[in-house]
Write a structure and sequence with these properties.
alpha+beta; PmbA/TldD fold; seven-stranded antiparallel beta sheet; 23% helix; globular
Length: 461
């Protein structure tokens, strides 16, 4: 990675990015070479993955460029299996000689590891055979100056929005592309390119009593033209920051909780961790033996949609080459499936679900209200817009985290709140979901609106 400071007066041609799709063919060839070497060594099976990324990042503060970073990196990783034993190695040098040495190193390691009857490639029958164009790659010729102007425009809009915004924590504009190739000795060999563009801004506000607050906002998209305008990001950042001024504690109590959409994704993230194969076979999940049991209310659904065009978490196959598929994760509140890789599926005696590497565009069902309507429906309660700390026990489901947000009474926001703790148990929190708003946040792999919970304990004054 190269980083250049004090670089405001650069020309647009300062850094030029080649289209990364021009490397796809050569990377496929490198994977094929590695698999051929592994076969010549007499291994039982092998799998090879290459991931290469390149991009530009420009950060500003107080409308001055602070850093420009250009990165281009990646490596080939190979895993071989010999008589139930596994060995892995990697190389960033893709010459045939370097690849041969990496394959030999992985095989040497496999000869000295203990056998594991659950290791090995995913079953051949599960390999993806239908490769769709998911429209994940939109290359854009962007200069550092252009990215800098995006960040400066966002900061300017935020700083000019309100006189109480008196300082900036900076803005950042990013343009990145990547290429991924995976192959194994089943004969599967495929690759694809992707792009991602983002812009974020963070500012500091101060009230008349000298109390300060900070907040941020961001936009992210596969396609450069689909990002929100910098002025929109800046104004939203200022609005969120100013709304937090005058925050106070509230008395210890129990209240309904309305999680803002970006916080609601975190709640569902804990659910993902609890139903993932690694947690299950280690018996470190509060949702052991929960298939076909009621986890959420009977109106609640979660759909996985891996093939949404242009979405941030779309994929034809997982990191083991297993075909992804539409599936119902939660159906009327019931858990329909765990999230299993080939290894965890074998450990548990279950079927691989194609989740090596993560999840793919989870979409929650909603109850028809907007977020503002849920605020009114809540009556008296707490909107949570920030959580802090790591107080989540995945074995028991106990949940306790620092929080900030807004106190609501009679369906109206009364004042901002900070320095409190919200606590409960994830099982009870899941069962206590009252509603999901229809205005979804689409900036992550979990697509959800705000989530209203029936009640949680709040520790304050």
């Amino acid at each position: 990675m190269l980083c250049y400071g004090n670089c405001r007066q650069r020309k647009s041609s300062f850094v030029s990015l080649n289209r990364i799709d021009s490397e796809l063919g050569a990377l496929k060839d490198a994977v094929a070479v590695a698999l051929e070497y592994a076969n010549k060594l007499g291994t039982n099976a092998a799998e090879v993955a290459i991931s290469k990324q390149q991009g530009l990042s420009v950060s500003t503060r107080l409308k001055e460029v602070e850093t420009v970073e250009f990165n281009k990196d990646g490596a080939l990783g190979i895993t071989v299996y010999r008589d139930g034993c596994k060995g892995s190695s990697s190389t960033s040098d893709l010459s045939p000689e370097a690849i041969a040495l990496a394959v030999k190193a992985a095989d040497d390691i496999a000869r000295y590891t203990s056998p594991d009857p659950f290791s090995g490639l995913a079953d051949k029958a599960l390999m993806a055979s239908q490769i769709r164009d998911l429209q994940l790659y939109y290359p854009e010729d962007i200069s550092p100056d252009e990215l800098a102007q995006l960040a400066i425009r966002a900061e300017t809009a935020a700083l000019d929005a309100d006189p109480r915004i008196n300082n900036s924590d900076g803005a950042s504009a990013n343009a990145h592309t990547a290429v991924k190739v995976y192959g194994n000795s089943h004969g599967f060999l495929n690759g694809y390119c992707s792009s991602r563009y983002s812009l974020s801004c963070s500012v500091i506000g101060e009230d008349s009593e000298g109390n300060m607050q900070r907040d941020y906002d961001y936009t992210i998209a596969r396609k450069f033209s689909e990002m929100l305008a910098p002025e929109t990001v800046g104004l939203k950042t200022a609005e969120k920051t100013v709304s937090r001024l005058g925050a106070r504690k509230i008395a210890t109590t129990r209240l309904p909780i309305l999680l803002a959409p970006d916080i609601a994704t975190g709640l569902i993230g804990h659910f993902i961790g609890a139903i993932s194969g690694g947690s299950l076979y280690r018996k470190s999940s509060f949702l052991l033996d929960s298939i076909n049991t009621q986890i959420f209310p009977d109106w609640f659904n979660i759909e996985e949609q891996p093939h949404l065009l242009g979405a941030l978490a779309s994929a034809n196959y997982d990191s083991e080459g297993v075909s992804t598929q539409d599936r119902r994760i939660i159906d009327r509140g019931m858990l329909e499936t765990y999230l299993l890789t080939s290894y965890s599926a074998r450990k548990l005696g279950l079927t691989n679900t194609g989740h090596a590497g993560g999840i793919y565009n989870w979409t929650l069902g909603h109850t028809g209200q907007t977020f503002d309507e849920l605020v009114k429906d809540m009556g008296t309660g707490l909107i949570v817009t920030e959580v802090m700390g790591q107080g989540v026990n995945m074995v028991t489901g106990d949940y306790s985290r620092g929080a900030a947000g807004f106190y609501v009474e009679n369906g109206e926001i009364q004042y901002p709140v900070e320095e409190i703790t919200i606590a409960g148990n994830l099982k009870e929190m899941f069962r206590g979901v009252q509603a999901v708003s229809k205005d979804f946040d689409l900036r992550s792999s979990i697509r959800t609106g705000g989530i209203l919970l029936s009640e949680m304990k709040i520790a304050g004054n």
